[in-house]
Amino acid sequence: MPPHTPSQSGLALPPTACHALIDYILQNHEAPTTMVICSSREAFLVGLQSSMQADNLNEITVDSGPLDASIHPLLIPTIHQLAASSSIATAFTPSLLHLRAYLACYAPARDPEPTSNTLARRGSQSAMLVIYGLLKLHRDTTEYSVQGLSRSLVIAVEAANTWQMRLTLVEPLEDTQPSAPEPIMETEAVSPPDPWSEQVPLLNSSLVPTNGSTWAGRTVEVGAVVARWCSITRP
Description:
Blueprint: E1 10-12, H1 18-28, E2 33-37, H2 41-59, H3 79-85, E3 88-92, H4 96-104, H5 116-121, E4 128-132, H6 134-139, H7 146-162, E5 166-170, E6 199-201, E7 219-221, H8 222-226, E8 230-232
Parallel strand pairs: 1-5, 1-8, 2-3, 2-4, 4-5
Antiparallel strand pairs: 6-7
C-alpha cells in the first residue's frame, strides 16, 4: 500500500486482505481511529483467520528457519502493537441500515492528552475513519448505484470531516483461503480485480443483476463516483 500522507481528500485503496488492513492501520494511524467493518463480527474474524493462515503459507520457503510459522506477526504482542491498537475503535455494520445509522451518529472517543509517541509522529500520520467493504455491502442490494453509493459516501464524508479524520475506503481481497504451499517457481503476478472499475446504474433499481447479468441503460464507473471525495489507488 502507498504511504499514508495527510490531505483534505479521502483515500480509496486497492483490495486488501484482513490482516494487511490491520497492519496498515497500525502503522499509519493517529488516535482516534475507527475501523468500520461492513460485515458481522463472526464473518470478519473467520476472514481474518483465513488471511493470516494464507499469509503464513506464503512466507514458507525452502530456507525457512526454526521459527514457528503458525504464529502470525499480528499475534505477537509487541509494545508498538499493544500501544497502537489501544487507540483504534472497531464497529461492525452488517447492513446498509446499520452502516448509515452508525455514521450519522458517529463520534470518536478522543484521548484526553496525546501521547509522546503521537506528538513525535504527528504530520506523517492522521486520524482515520476506515470503512472496509463499502462496495461489497452495496453490491447485492438495489442501492448498488450512483444514487445509493453517493448517499452512503456523503454520510461517511460528513462524519470524517466533522471530526477532522481521513476517510479511507478499502475493499476485501477475496480468495484468501489457505492452501498447501506449492513448489517455488517463477510465475506471472496476477493483479486482484479492481472494484473501482465496476459499472453501476445511475439510480436505484428494484432488481439486482444475478448470474452474470448486467445493468440495462446508462452506467457509470464506481471510481467516478468515489473520486468526488477520495483519491483512488488502483490495484
